Amino acid sequence: MSMTASYASIEQITNQYLPRNSRPVSAPSDQVTSFTDILKTKFPEYGKSESTLKFSKHAARRLDERDISLSEEQNERLEAGVRSAGEKGINDSLVILDTLAFIVNVPSQTVVTAMDQTETMDGNVFTNIDGAVIA
User: Fold this and answer.
1) Of all helices (H) and strands (E), which one includes residue 69?
2) β-strand partners of 115
3) Would you say the C-alpha torsion 105, 106, 108, 113 has a positive or negative sign?
4) Mind listing the pLDDT tens digit for each residue in 22-35?
5) At the N or C end, where does the chain have fewer CB atoms within 10 A?
6) Residue 103 host element (H or E)
């Protein structure tokens, strides 16, 4: 013969293990720390990246051929220009930065091609863009 208790309801079990006068304990709202905050504390590099932009093989080759490298400040301005283009609903943008011109596919955050002022740009005509940003 087995001795098992039978309960008529979940309330009976709850009352047996959790007295009626007990309430769940919660931290005050001003002491709540988000998971992201904890992660950033333990791993300061979390959420930081060199760049949100990607460079296509073609754009990377163009930059390399012309010995063009972007400073951190220029890279930030380029990213800001791409963000601005995205906020305006531009899909394919010309971003002019100092003496450089970049064609960027905004939704994919990809620099498609890059040119400098010394390059002949087909009569300075840019096609297949729907907006331009001077960064």
Assistant:
1) none
2) 101
3) positive
4) 555 555 555 667 77
5) N
6) strand 100-105
Q: How far apart are CA 101 and CA 125, in angstroms?
A: 12
What's the token pair of residue 101?
A: 């011109």
Burial class (CB in 10 A: 0-12, 13-18, 19+), 40: middle
Q: Which amino acid is located at 52 in the chain?
A: T
DSSP strand pairing (110-116 vs 131-134): unpaired
Is the CA virtual torsion 51, 55, 59, 61 positive or negative? positive
Domain residue ranges of the chain, discontinuous segments joined by +: 54-134
Helix (H, G, I), strand (E, B) or coil at 35: helix
Query: For residue range 121-134, what is the model confidence (pLDDT) as tens digits?
Result: 556 788 899 999 99
The residues pairing with 114 across neighbouring beta strands, listed in sequence order, are: 102
